[in-house]
Amino acid sequence: MAWEISNAAVERYLTQDRAGLGGGFAPSARARTLLPLARKVVLVLLVVMVVLITLSELGINIAPLLAGAGVIGLAIGFGAQKLVQDVITGFFILVEDAISIGDVVSVGGISGLVEDLSVRSIKLRDLSGNVHTVPFSSVDTVTNMTKTFSYYTTDVGVAYKEDTDQVSEVCKAVVDEMRDEPAFASDILEPLEVLGLDSFGDSAVNVKVRIKTRPIKQWGAAENSIVD
């Protein structure tokens, strides 16, 4: 009964439309990541407790079982060091909030959208639709492309005969117009930033610019911007 109540509460929290209830917000990415994991851990603990209590009620002495479980657990621990490393590394990654479900990340040499997190691995879907399962133990660096905010960065080619300052102002005006459109008003956070001269091409000088956006919205800005 306790499991049914807690499970229903978690499921309701994760799926209900808070905006429709006047709350004005949805469950955070951190909540959507950690609550399902906590639910799985609680389920395992409850199953173990129920089994032990049932055996005890049937008159079976569980002390030898617990002692045997300790020996077996020790043996498994020596043989499953990789699994233990997965779990420990994953614990610290999740506690530090380095990755959440819905983020776009690069881990273990693979980039994609985080679809699921378990106690030992990450599931990523790449641009081709392939799903990759990456063990936490193989993650030494996490590159999160959608944390707090994002940048769309590109080079603008300016012909040598043109005034780079004038072209930069035109690009800024274009992005300002995009920010006035309802479709982009909430996604583009700041005016276009001109970072300066980046390189010289055969027929143009390349000026690097960037647009600050909400997380995961940088590609939408790229598709609709003419500064590329």
Helix and strand topology:
Layout (H helix, E strand, L loop, with lengths): L1 H14 L13 H29 L5 H17 L1 H15 L8 E4 L2 E8 L3 E5 L5 E5 L6 E3 L5 E10 L4 H17 L1 H4 L7 E8 L3 E10 L4 H7 L4
Antiparallel strand pairs: 1-2, 1-5, 2-3, 3-4, 6-8, 7-8
Helix pairs in contact: 1-2
Characteristic terms for this protein:
3 domains; Alpha-Beta Plaits; 5-stranded antiparallel beta sheet; SH3 type barrels; 3-stranded antiparallel beta sheet; alpha+beta; 8 strands
Shape: elongated
Major β-sheet annotation: 5 strands, antiparallel
pLDDT average, as an integer? 78
Total of DSSP H or I helical runs spanning 4+ residues: 7
Helix coverage percent:
40-55%
What is the count of distinct domains? 3
Topology as a string of helices (H) and strands (E): HHHHEEEEEEHHEEH
- Strand order, main sheet: write it out: 4-3-2-1-5
Structural class: alpha+beta
How many strand units? 8
Tell me the β content: 15-25%
Explain what you see:
Strands 4-3-2-1-5 form a five-stranded antiparallel sheet. Strands 6-8-7 form a three-stranded antiparallel sheet. It is elongated, with a radius of gyration of 26 Å. 15% of the residues are buried. It has three domains: 2-79, no CATH class; 90-144, SH3 type barrels (Roll), CATH 2.30.30.60; 150-224, Alpha-Beta Plaits (2-Layer Sandwich), CATH 3.30.70. Strand 2 (110-117) and strand 3 (121-125) form a beta hairpin. Helix 1 (2-15) runs antiparallel to helix 2. It is built from seven helices and eight strands, in the order H-H-H-H-E-E-E-E-E-E-H-H-E-E-H. The model is unreliable at 17-26 (pLDDT under 50). The protein has helices at 2-15, 29-57, 63-79, 81-95, 164-180, 182-185, 218-224, and strands spanning 104-107, 110-117, 121-125, 131-135, 142-144, 150-159, 193-200, 204-213. With 228 residues, it is of the alpha+beta class.
